[in-house]
């Protein structure tokens, strides 16, 4: 099982230095990371939008250790909102944030993260878009859901993410579906113990389907985050059975993965949103993409051997 090993490596400074220095890294990272700056990512947002795709933008870099870094993260997102406003892309591009990047793991982290993310959510609302709070490891979720609930008092369109492999998630999904939340469901990309998370892939898929049904039958707005053709097909069928119109749910996929399928779904009239990450602190995000799919790791290894 390479996935858990890679996820463990995502927290290793020694492995970070090795991967960053490897000759083939830049080529592979470019497949998943849209660029390092706002200027890099803006043309990509415009291109995807012109092709009928919507976007959620993630400024990578959740592993912070100082309060000043949390302020820098807030300012990076505010800069992004400003550029989207200039381009008139607010209605096509939302933002995804990791609260750890906003200081959640620091002293008084819950209050700090809420104070930092609120102006970003408010700025997003002013240009006609919104923010989704990404799920991280299970120890952060109670804080994330509390911040989500607080933000929705003033900005009800604020979304959140749930992870199918956690035992708690079906209960979380029922609560969120009842209160009309925007909810992205993903399988889960963090190394979690067997005490809190399903370990078998087939059982995770079954949980994913159960949770999709809860969301589709509920009052909220489901966002199906998956590249799995089977789960996408099941999602379409569950939406049909629930009587949902095509604009009452959406699919989401990562930038650089299954692009043809993204365009196919958009051409069929589905709302298709591309999760597009950018920034200089890409290591943690990149390693999770390798862990999710062995083919990504093989591609990386071949690139290193070819360039070495």
Task: Name the features.
globular, alpha/beta, 53% helix, 308 residues, 13 helices
Please describe the topology of this protein:
Elements lengths: L1 H8 L3 H9 L3 H8 L5 H13 L3 E6 L7 H21 L5 E5 L11 H18 L4 E3 L7 H14 L4 E5 L5 H10 L3 E5 L14 H17 L3 E5 L3 H13 L8 E5 L4 H9 L4 E7 L4 H10 L1 H14 L1
Helix pairs in contact: 1-12, 5-6, 6-7, 8-9, 9-10, 12-13
Task: Give structural notes.
The protein is α/β, with parallel strands linked by helices. The chain is 53% helix and 13% strand. The chain has 13 helices and eight strands. It has helices spanning 2-9, 13-21, 25-32, 38-50, 67-87, 109-126, 141-154, 169-178, 201-217, 229-241, 259-267, 283-292, 294-307; strands spanning 54-59, 93-97, 131-133, 159-163, 182-186, 221-225, 250-254, 272-278. Helix 8 (169-178) packs parallel to helix 9 and helix 9 runs parallel beside helix 10. The protein is globular.
In angstroms, what is the radius of gyration?
A: 18 Å
How does the major sheet shape up? 8 strands, parallel, barrel
Helix content: 40-55%
Q: Count the E strands.
A: 8
Question: Could you give the distance between the termini?
Answer: 26 Å
Overall spatial form: globular
**Elements, N to C (H/E):** HHHHEHEHEHEHEHEHEHEHH
Which residues form runs of ≥5 with pLDDT under 50? 303-308
Count of helical regions: 13
Residue-averaged pLDDT, rounded?
87
Query: What portion of residues belong to β-strands?
Result: 5-15%
């Amino acid at each position: 099982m390479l996935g858990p090993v890679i996820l463990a490596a995502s927290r290793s400074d020694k492995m970070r230095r090795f991967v960053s220095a490897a000759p083939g890294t830049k080529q592979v990272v470019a497949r998943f990371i849209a660029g390092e700056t706002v200027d890099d990512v803006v043309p990509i947002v415009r291109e995807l939008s012109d092709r009928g795709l919507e976007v959620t933008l993630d400024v990578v870099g959740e592993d912070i250790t100082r309060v000043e870094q949390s302020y820098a993260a807030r300012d990076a997102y505010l800069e992004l909102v400003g550029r989207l406003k200039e381009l008139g892309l607010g209605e096509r591009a939302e933002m995804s944030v990791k609260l750890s990047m906003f200081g959640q793991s620091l002293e008084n982290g819950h209050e700090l993260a809420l104070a930092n993310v609120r102006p970003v959510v408010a700025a997003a609302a002013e240009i006609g878009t919104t923010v989704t709070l990404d799920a991280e490891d299970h120890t952060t979720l109670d804080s994330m859901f509390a911040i989500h609930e607080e933000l929705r008092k003033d900005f009800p369109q604020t979304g959140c993410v749930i992870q199918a492999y956690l035992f708690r998630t079906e209960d979380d999904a029922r609560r969120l579906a009842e209160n009309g939340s925007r909810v992205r469901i993903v399988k889960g990309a963090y190394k979690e113990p067997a005490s809190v998370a399903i370990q078998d892939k087939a059982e995770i898929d079954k949980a994913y389907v159960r949770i999709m049904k809860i969301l589709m039958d509920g009052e909220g707005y489901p966002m199906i985050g998956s590249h799995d053709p089977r789960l996408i097909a099941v999602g379409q069928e569950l939406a049909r059975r629930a009587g949902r119109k095509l604009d009452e749910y959406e699919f989401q996929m990562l930038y650089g993965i299954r692009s043809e399928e993204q365009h196919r779904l958009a051409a069929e009239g589905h709302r298709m949103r591309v999760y597009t990450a950018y920034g200089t602190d890409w290591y943690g995000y990149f390693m999770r993409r390798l862990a999710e799919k062995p083919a990504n790791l093989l591609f990386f290894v071949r690139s290193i051997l070819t360039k070495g």
